[in-house]
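Ticket #208: bound-state structure for copper (II) ion.
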Amino acid sequence: MSNGEDLNVAGAGPAGDGLDETALTMGIDPYERNWMRLTVALLVMFFTTVAIAGFAMGIQVTGAYQEVDPRTVLDTEPWATPGLRKIGDKEYEAYVVAQTWSFNPSEIEIPVGSTVTILVTSPDLQHGFKITDTNVNTMVVPGQVSKVTYTFDTVGDFPYICHEYCGTGHATMFGVVKVVPEGTLDEVSGDTGGDTDNEANSDEDDSQ
Ligand SMILES: [Cu+2]
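RESOLUTION: The complex was predicted; output attached.
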């Protein structure tokens, strides 16, 4: 063999010195091919993990559920009377306004086992809404409504806080979800806001 033939690569003739030609596919080195396989396997694994978390386990990034005008939102229902609305058996909607530097309402009382859809917005600047010991954790952006749903299966107090620094009074922004044993919550205290609306709504429900 001449020196020129010794420098041959895959598919271009007899194997050169120490080069195992049978291991080469389309001229790709076995090591490189294995790294490519590993890369594809990892990508498949990551996409599968994300798909399982997102669709099977329901873990999703909270997006903007609705857009509102932050300048007029507090004059517009339902945000003019934030609070808890009963929408079904053990099903509630809680409209929460996060503003400098408080939450309205600062207390939400529900019977154990209730599913609460929490809608939060801000009329001024960016806040956060996180309920301790739950996976409820969302940004509150002016002009947008964040929506999270959670079922409270244990009795106790679940404080909620602002976790986005919003100025000197940031540390005073907190409230609490009080999950009480069944039967200890009467009809009136179940609604912490929008009393007249609730009565009107429940009347409508009865007539249907
Ligand atoms: Cu804050």
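RESOLUTION NOTES: Helices lie at 3-6, 30-56, 195-207.
TICKET STATUS: resolved
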